[in-house]
Amino acid sequence: MFLVKVAFWLAVLVLLIPTGGDSSHRSDQVGAGDAMSAAYAAVDDLRGFCGRQPEVCEIAGRVGSTFTEKAQVGAKMLYEFLKDQAGDHGGATVTGSVTEPAAPKPEAPSLAPDEMQMPWRGPENPPRRRS
Q: What pLDDT is stored for residue 131 in this prediction?
C-alpha cells in the first residue's frame, strides 16, 4: 500500500507541474476538479482490491513481511559495521562536544638577532587627518 501512496502523490505532483510552451490552446487539458475526482475514484477502487483479489493481498502481505525483516537485518548489519569502524573509545561517552584547540607551539624566530635590533624607519610624523 506504501508504493501505491507514493505513486499517487507523485502523480499529483506531476499534475501540478506546468507544461512547457503554449498549452492554452490544447483541448485535452484536465482540470484540477477532474483530476481530484479521478484520484478519489482510484483510491476507492484500491480500498476494495483485497476483497476482489484475496490471494494477491495475502502474497503481498508476505512480501511486505519479508521486506521488513530484510530491512531490519540490513540495518543491524550496517549498525555493527559502523560500530566496528568507529573503534573502541575506552568506554568514554562521545557527546559531540568540541574541545578547545591547543595553544600554538612557539615557532623559531624567522629573523636573525641582528635584524631584530634594526631601528624603526617609519615616517617621523604621522600623516595629519583632514577634518
A: 66
Q: Say what the pTM is.
A: 0.36
The ranges assigned to domains in the chain are: 53-87
- Identify the segments of the chain with pLDDT beneath 50: none
DSSP 97-118: PPPPPPPPPPPPPSS-HHHHTP
**Which three cell numbers mark 78?**
550496517
Extract the C-alpha cell encoding 34: 477532474
CA distances to 14, 22, 34, 41, 53 from 17, rounded to whole Å, are 5, 14, 16, 22, 35
* pLDDT at residue 22, as a whole number: 60
Sign of torsion, CA 82 86 87 90?
negative
Tell me which DSSP letter residue 22 carries.
-
Q: Are 32 and 16 in contact (CB under 8 A)?
A: no
- Report the half-sphere exposure of 130 (CA within 13 A, side-chain side): 0
